[in-house]
Amino acid sequence: MYTIKEFFSTLQGEGTHAGRVAVFCRFTGCNLWSGREVDRENAQCRFCDTDFVGTDGNLGGKYQTAAELADIIEKEWLSMNPSESHRYVVFTGGEPLLQLDQDLISALHQKSFEIGVETNGTIKPPNGIDWLCVSPKDGTELLCLVADEIKYVVPQFHGEIDKKAIIQRLKRFENMNFKNFYLQPMDGPHRDLHLEFAIAICKERPKWRLSIQQHKYINLP
Ligand SMILES: C[S@@+](CC[C@H](N)C(=O)[O-])C[C@H]1O[C@@H](n2cnc3c(N)ncnc32)[C@H](O)[C@@H]1O
Ligand SMILES: Nc1nc2[nH]cc(C(=O)O)c2c(=O)[nH]1
Ligand code: SF4
Ligand SMILES: [Mg+2]
User: Fold this and answer.
1) What cofactor requirement does the entry state (predicted)?
2) Any bridge partners for residue 118, and if so which?
3) Is the pLDDT of residue 161 over 80?
4) CB-based burial label for 167 (10 Å; 0-12, 13-18, 19+)
5) Which residue positions form the known binding site?
6) Are 188 and 158 in contact, with CB atoms under 8 Å apart?
7) Ligand nearest to the CA of 34
8) In what order do the strands lie in the sheet with 88-92?
9) CB 4 within 8 A of CB 63
10) Does the beta carbon of 94 sit less than 6 angstroms from any atom of ligand 3?
11) 7-63 pLDDT, tens per residue?
């Protein structure tokens, strides 16, 4: 069974595929935060910008089979664009690797979808993902050591202005097997400050490129 918060179609706003049309499937639940505000300050991940609790979003619910989910994703794609090609689905959450399995990957591949995944990197991914984005969270154990992109959020709490310490942390990732390296400014009340901070680090460590969450600037979901 799969528990889904919502489906929506939009442009991917982050990372290498920013600007690309995609159907997003957001799974309910995460292993690093309950999603409840009262638990945020003691969670392993405290800066989350997403509501992934429950099943109350567009077409959210509990689904028994991968085929049902694949049908919804295909319908969502066709409602936006009847074209047969360049089909793209992004599984996110919450933490998608708590639920994404081989059945669901096969069902989407059978419908000619490329499959993107956004993960916090603490769970080993199944085979067959076409684009894996790992976004490590400080203080957690990283188990996804190979990925198409790493997207590290900076800073991970407001007021963490020790650039040297952050760069030290980045150096560890630089030696890992990622194809693309991104810094994403932490959104929240101090987003613009964090944007400047991320740009400053990119200037010092040119291996890293800036990923702004462009959907938020153009009012897309
Ligand atoms: C909501 S998470 C869901 C997928 C997965 N749990 C993860 O953390 O990668 C999707 C992406 O948004 C990023 N993100 C979450 N909160 C953010 C914030 N306040 N500012 C910038 N990026 C954020 C995450 O780091 C991740 O790359
Ligand atoms: N447009 C858009 N792009 C995104 N890329 C990653 C997202 C996420 O929440 O995982 C996201 C999202 O929520 N919206
Ligand atoms: S790991 Fe991802 S979904 Fe979970 S709380 Fe952090 S950003 Fe949100
Ligand atoms: Mg988002």
Assistant:
1) Mg(2+); S-adenosyl-L-methionine; [4Fe-4S] cluster
2) 133
3) no
4) middle
5) 11-13, 26, 30, 45, 47-50, 92, 94, 135-137, 184-187, 221
6) yes
7) 3
8) 61-63, 2-11, 21-27, 88-92, 114-119, 131-134, 146-154, 177-185, 209-210
9) yes
10) yes
11) 999 999 999 999 999 999 999 999 999 999 999 999 999 999 999 999 999 999 999
Q: Which amino acid is at 46?
A: R
State the distance from the centre of ligand 4 to the C-alpha of 121, rounded, in angstroms.
16
> Which of these, 199, 127, 115, 208, lies nearest to 170 by C-alpha position?
208
CA 82-66-35 angle, 5° bins: 95
Annotated binding site for substrate: 11-13, 26, 92, 221
Q: Which of 24, 118, 180, 214 to mutate to test the pocket of ligand 1 (most atoms within 8 A of CB)?
A: 118
User: Is it the case that residue 84 has pLDDT exceeding 80?
Assistant: no
Has residue 85 got a pLDDT over 90? no
- Domains in the chain: ranges and CATH: 2-217 (3.20.20.70)
d(CA 187, CA 194): 8
Q: For residues 36 and 124, what is the distance between their CA atoms, to the nearest angstrom?
A: 25
Tokens for 95, please give them: 């933490």
* Ligand 1 pocket test target in 143, 184, 194 with most atoms within 8 Å of CB: 184
User: What does the block give as tokens for 52?
Assistant: 């992934």
Average pLDDT, the chain: 97
The pLDDT of 99-109, averaged and rounded, is: 98
Confidence of residue 82 (pLDDT cuts 50, 70, 90): confident
**Structure token digits, residue 172:** 């560890």
- Number of alpha carbons in the 13 Å side-chain half-sphere of residue 77: 25
